[in-house]
Design brief:
Helix 4 links the parallel strand 3 and strand 4. By secondary structure, the protein is an alpha/beta fold. The site of zinc ion (ZN) has 6 residues, from loops.
């Protein structure tokens, strides 16, 4: 089936009336997408393997013979799950393009000397259980299997229960060396989550790096009191500290060339007529260099009693530099772009695998929203770019 045909086939799956997608890991929508993927693999005569975490790999050629020969495979693909209210392209563009690449290479009579796989990583967005890139983190050992099995969704269902319901044995979950050593090179094609390519007037870029990023919980203590009877000068109102903190984060991020977001806040007791006793806010900050991101954190929340707890920190991920330069040269000197978003490609790169990314132009620059877009011509250009790269790597 062509790119357009495959795109039409999955378009209705998990789409809400508002146009946004809800394709959470290990749900019915996810099962439909996984079944569709297995069907596309089988239609092409590819051998489907499901690893310990539930990621799907469709192989053209024998991956283990290639490992034995010291020439492990070339893997292309991405993920099919979404955030709540997500767009159509984040993830599926990479999977559908990869399947279309297999067709394109066969149509031109290409005979790979290294096996090629199309991968569908499970649970990339972490929308259901709260941990992004769970599928790739599990097989690389970056996410502990017991911890993963015990994660709960908003309804209290554990990941282990969700896997069992979807027919995947949670007892298998864990690091998967056998799967990883089959991967010689991984190239993930993805919709661009910004306007870099629009500004450059180019359809495709090569990923250079993923920005260092962190997440902090900031506790702002105060004193609960009556909203009507407490004089302003007598108040200890943590909501004012929060307001100052949000503005400080914005100023510091601007000065440092970073981005900073306060997207989640908890207020106690959360009453209209009560001065809060405590406000808890979460700061997400990312930027091109670690020192800039740390400077944003330093600039916020220095009031009395304020505590910042680091919930996660991910250092900069630099993709395989010679590989990125080689791909850029192959693609008519495609520009190199860094991104502030995490990806399975970043997890595999951190685990020491040779990894690259291609980005396809997004005219709205918007992502994780129904406004996310790639023009169909650019999708086809992305397929062609990925085909050129795959052919070169599997030659
Ligand atoms: Zn994605």
């Amino acid at each position: 089936m062509t790119f357009d045909g495959m795109w039409s086939a999955i378009e209705p799956i998990g789409r809400a009336r508002t146009g946004g997608y809800r394709r959470f890991a290990w749900t019915g929508q996810d099962a439909d997408l996984r079944e569709w993927f297995a069907g596309e693999a089988s239609e092409r005569g590819l051998d489907l393997a499901t690893d310990r975490a539930g990621n799907q790999w469709a192989w053209w050629g024998d991956p283990d013979a290639a490992v034995a020969a010291g020439r492990p495979g070339v893997v292309i693909g991405s993920h099919l799950d979404s955030v709540p209210g997500g767009g159509a392209f984040d993830g599926p563009l990479g999977v559908v393009s990869a399947l279309a690449v297999v067709d394109a290479l066969r149509a031109r009579g290409f005979a790979p000397t290294r096996p090629i796989a199309v991968v569908n990583f499970v649970d990339e967005e972490g929308a259901r259980f709260g941990i992004a890139c769970a599928g790739s983190r599990l097989i690389t050992g970056k996410l502990d299997a017991d911890k993963a099995r015990g994660l709960r969704d908003a309804d209290g269902v554990t990941m282990a229960e969700a896997m069992t319901a979807a027919g995947h044995d949670p007892g298998q979950v864990g690091p998967d060396e056998e799967t990883l050593r089959r991967v010689g090179t991984f190239v993930e094609l993805h919709i661009e989550q910004g306007r870099g390519l629009v500004d450059l007037g180019r359809p495709v870029a090569v990923g250079s790096a993923i920005w260092p990023h962190g997440r902090w919980r900031i506790d702002l203590p105060g004193e609960a009191n009556h909203a009507g009877t407490t004089r302003l000068e007598d108040r200890n109102d943590p909501m004012l500290a929060l307001a100052a903190m949000v503005l400080e984060a914005r100023v510091a991020a601007t000065a440092q060339g970073c981005v900073a977001t306060v997207g989640k806040v908890r207020v106690e007791p959360n009453g209209v007529n009560a001065i809060p006793s405590r406000v808890t806010a979460w700061l997400d900050a990312r930027g091109p260099v670690e020192s800039g991101v740390r400077a944003v954190l330093q600039a916020v929340g220095r009031g009395p009693g304020t505590v910042a707890v680091e919930e996660s920190w991910t250092p900069e991920t630099i993709f395989d530099v010679p590989l990125a330069e080689r791909l850029s040269a192959l693609l008519d000197d495609a520009p190199m772009l860094a991104t502030g978003a995490g990806h399975d490609a970043g997890v595999l790169a951190t685990a020491g695998l040779s990894t690259a990314m291609l980005f396809v132009r997004n005219p709205t620059g918007i992502s994780h929203s129904p406004s996310e877009l790639a023009e169909r011509d650019d999708c086809h250009r992305g397929v062609e770019a990925l085909a050129v790269v795959t052919e070169e790597l599997a030659r």
